[in-house]
C-alpha cells in the first residue's frame, strides 16, 4: 500500500490510509454478496498484511497508556511517525508462535496479540456490517446507543405493542458453540481457538477507536464481534420454520413482521399478545440451540411496557399510545452520589482544580442525556443539588467564616445567573444543555456499500453536525 509522506515533516497522510482501507472493505462486501468466500479470505489477508493497516494499528498501540512502560521502540518521544515505524519493525521481528502467549506479564507477546486483534477487527467489520440482521445494532459502523433508543421509540410509539421479551443468551465459547464458530467465522482457526481458550485474556485487550477518526467511533473488541456472528441468518431461519409449522397465512405474516431487535448480547421481541411471543420464543430457542447457545432463567425478562422499564440509563414507559422517555431515577441518584463522594475526597485540593474536574463530570453526563426530551425539570433539580453540595463543601473548608464572606469570595453576580461559583479564572458550569435532535443512521443501511469515499465521510459528519442526507 502506498503511503504519502512528507520527508521534511515526516508526517503520514492518514486520510489516504483510511480511504484505502475502506476500498478494501467494500471489495470484501462485494465478494461476500457473490458468495466467493475464497476471495473474501484473500482480501482479508491482503488487508491484514498491507503496510497501511499495520501502521494504523501500531499508532493506536503507541497512544495507549500501558505501553509507556515499554521503551525499546521509543527513540524519539515527540515523533509519532518514527515511533510507529519502530514499533512496526519490532512486531514483525516477533516469532510466529504468537498463540503461546498466556500470561499478561509477557509484555512483548501481549503487544503482538493486541496488534493482531486490531488488524482482525478491520477485516471483520465489513462482514459484520453485511451479514447482520436488518434490525441489528451489534457493533455496526457509526451506530451508538442513541440509535437503538430511537428504534425502540419508533416500534412502540403509536403501535399496539404492549409486551416485550428480552433475552440474553449464555454459554458463548463453549464446546458446541466452539465447533459452530470454527466452521462459520471468517477468521484464522489457530487465532480463534486461542481466543476461545483464553476468553478473559482476550477481553482484557479491548481495542477502541478515537472519536475523530473515520473508521469507527466507539469502543469495540474482537470477542464482541465474534459473539455477534452467532446471530447471523435469523430471518432465513424463521421463514423456513414458519412455513413448516404455521398453516395460516395471517399468522405467518404477523410473526414475520414483528420487529425483532438485536443489541450486543440482547434480543428484543415486541408483541401485542403473549401467545404470539411464545411462538417466536420457541423459534429463537431452536435457533440458538443450533448455534450452541442456551437461555437461562436469570437472563430472560417479560416486561409490560405500560408499567415501564429501564434501559441504558433511560426509562421507557407507554401512556395513551405514546412512549415517554426520561432519565431514570437510579442514574440521577448515582450521579448525585458521585458528585458528593468527589467533594468529600477533594477537601484539600485547590478550588480551581476541583472546578475543572466537576465541569468534566457535568459535561459528560449532560452530553450523554442531551437526546432525551423534557430536560428542564432534571436540569433544575441537578442545579439545585449541585449548589447546596458546593455551599456545604465551602462551609466545611472555611469553618470560621460567615455566609457573606463566602459569597463575596467565591460567588459573583451575573445578569443571567445570580450565583456563579469561581476561583482563579475558573467558572463552574451549570446543567443547561438544550435538547439535541439526533440523526439516527438506520440499521438497514450498509456503510461499506457506499461507493464514494466522500459519501462515507458525510455519514460520519451527519452524526456530529445533525445533517441528514442518505
From TrEMBL:
Residues 10-62 form the Reverse transcriptase N-terminal domain. GO terms for molecular function: RNA-directed DNA polymerase activity. It holds the Pfam family RVT_N. This is Putative group II intron-associated reverse transcriptase. It comes from the Eukaryota. Keywords: Chloroplast, Nucleotidyltransferase, Plastid, RNA-directed DNA polymerase, Transferase. Residues 333-411 form the Group II intron maturase-specific domain.
Amino acid at each position: 500500500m502506498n503511503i504519502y509522506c512528507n520527508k521534511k515533516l515526516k508526517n503520514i497522510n492518514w486520510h489516504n490510509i483510511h480511504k484505502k482501507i475502506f476500498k478494501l472493505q467494500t471489495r470484501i462486501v462485494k465478494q461476500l454478496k457473490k458468495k466467493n468466500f475464497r476471495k473474501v479470505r484473500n482480501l482479508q489477508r491482503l488487508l491484514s498484511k498491507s503496510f497501511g493497516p499495520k501502521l494504523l494499528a501500531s499508532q493506536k498501540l503507541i497512544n495507549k497508556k500501558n505501553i509507556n512502560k515499554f521503551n525499546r521502540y521509543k527513540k524519539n518521544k515527540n515523533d509519532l511517525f518514527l515511533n510507529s515505524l519502530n514499533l512496526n519493525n519490532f512486531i514483525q521481528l516477533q516469532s510466529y508462535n504468537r498463540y503461546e502467549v498466556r500470561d499478561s506479564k509477557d509484555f512483548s507477546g501481549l503487544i503482538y496479540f493486541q496488534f493482531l486483534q486490531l488488524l482482525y477487527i478491520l477485516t471483520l467489520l465489513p462482514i459484520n456490517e453485511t451479514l447482520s440482521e436488518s434490525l441489528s445494532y451489534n457493533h455496526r459502523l457509526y451506530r451508538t446507543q442513541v440509535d437503538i433508543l430511537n428504534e425502540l421509540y419508533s416500534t412502540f410509539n403509536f403501535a399496539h405493542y404492549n409486551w416485550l421479551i428480552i433475552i440474553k443468551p449464555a454459554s458463548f465459547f463453549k464446546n458446541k458453540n466452539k465447533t459452530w464458530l470454527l466452521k462459520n467465522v471468517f477468521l484464522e482457526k489457530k487465532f480463534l481457538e486461542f481466543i476461545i481458550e483464553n476468553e478473559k485474556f482476550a477481553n482484557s485487550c479491548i481495542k477502541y477507536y478515537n472519536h475523530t477518526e473515520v473508521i469507527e467511533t466507539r469502543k469495540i473488541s474482537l470477542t464482541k464481534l465474534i459473539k455477534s456472528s452467532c446471530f447471523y441468518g435469523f430471518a432465513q431461519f424463521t421463514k423456513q420454520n414458519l412455513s413448516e409449522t404455521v398453516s395460516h397465512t395471517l399468522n405467518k405474516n404477523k410473526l414475520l413482521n414483528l420487529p425483532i431487535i438485536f443489541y450486543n448480547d440482547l434480543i428484543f421481541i415486541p408483541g401485542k399478545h403473549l401467545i404470539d411471543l411464545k411462538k417466536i420464543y420457541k423459534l429463537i430457542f431452536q435457533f440458538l440451540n443450533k448455534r450452541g447457545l442456551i437461555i437461562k432463567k436469570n437472563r430472560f425478562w417479560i416486561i409490560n411496557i405500560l408499567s415501564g422499564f429501564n434501559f441504558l440509563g433511560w426509562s421507557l414507559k407507554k401512556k395513551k399510545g405514546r412512549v415517554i422517555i426520561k432519565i431514570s431515577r437510579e442514574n440521577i441518584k448515582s450521579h448525585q452520589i458521585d458528585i458528593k463522594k468527589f467533594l468529600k475526597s477533594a477537601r484539600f485540593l485547590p478550588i480551581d482544580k476541583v472546578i475543572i474536574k466537576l465541569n468534566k463530570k457535568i459535561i459528560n453526563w449532560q452530553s450523554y442525556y442531551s437526546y432525551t426530551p423534557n430536560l428542564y425539570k432534571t436540569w433544575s433539580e441537578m442545579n439545585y443539588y449541585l449548589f447546596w453540595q458546593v455551599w456545604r463543601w465551602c462551609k466545611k473548608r472555611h469553618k470560621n467564616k460567615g455566609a457573606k464572606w463566602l459569597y463575596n469570595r467565591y460567588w459573583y453576580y451575573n445578569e443571567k445567573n445570580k450565583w456563579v461559583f469561581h476561583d482563579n479564572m475558573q467558572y463552574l458550569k451549570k446543567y443547561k444543555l438544550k435538547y439535541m435532535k439526533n440523526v439516527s443512521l438506520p440499521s438497514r443501511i450498509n456503510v461499506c456499500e457506499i461507493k464514494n469515499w466522500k459519501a462515507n465521510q458525510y455519514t460520519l459528519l451527519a452524526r456530529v453536525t445533525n445533517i441528514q442526507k442518505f
